[in-house]
Predict the structure of Lsg locus protein 4.
Amino acid sequence: MNKYLISLDKDEQRRALFFSQPDTADFCVFSAINTMQREWEELAQQFDLAQFERCYGRKVTKGEIGCTLSHLEVYRLIVEDESVADDDYALVCEDDALFAPNFQQNLTALLSQNNAMPIVLIGQSKIAQFNDIELEINYPTTFSFLCHKAGDVAYAYPYKSYFAGTVGYLIKKSAARAFLKLLEQGKPFWLADDFLLFETRFALPNQVVRPLMVIENPKLVSNLEAIRGSQANNLAKKLMKYPLKKIMAIRKNLGK
């Protein structure tokens, strides 16, 4: 399968850390689009600033534009590769990706499932551990015995799609083509990880993997301790919402 690593040219140390992991030699590096020094007038020619603000209720940042444009260009590479079938998955990661043990074995098992899902989120940003309790509390799936098993992991629908980050995910060539079709209608206006938008407006649903196969490398996430502190402070509030989320997840998976 095709594997892509999105990385800014300047981030040599991040790439070195990424490639120090097993089973990474076959990743193709895509030079991420650096928008930080570009003028807003130039960016407005490539990205719909006004529609973003209508959609999200705030102004977009230059970094968010660069992230979205970079992932779209990787989708273009996927579509242009004639050796890839429409039903094949490609793996897209960012250079802060940390792989779980047995990553390649579980990836192979996952790919053998003949899953029809356009997007499978195998990773998540801003999470402390591969099997963090936050995953179940905030983003529950159905009961484990009802999930689809693949190696040491399982996959299912989350209770609803959410902003999981773009540290690591699988996307079918057909889904990448769907994104490029949207660009024929106008400029992009979305965040690269707005999987809820992709499901509800673009008809591109997703499933999630538990435990995660990819998280942000803690060596590159300076605010990880802050994340843990925030989780502890809000745990009681989150637990109050958990039963309803779990019911929604069960219903969603049973209805598919």
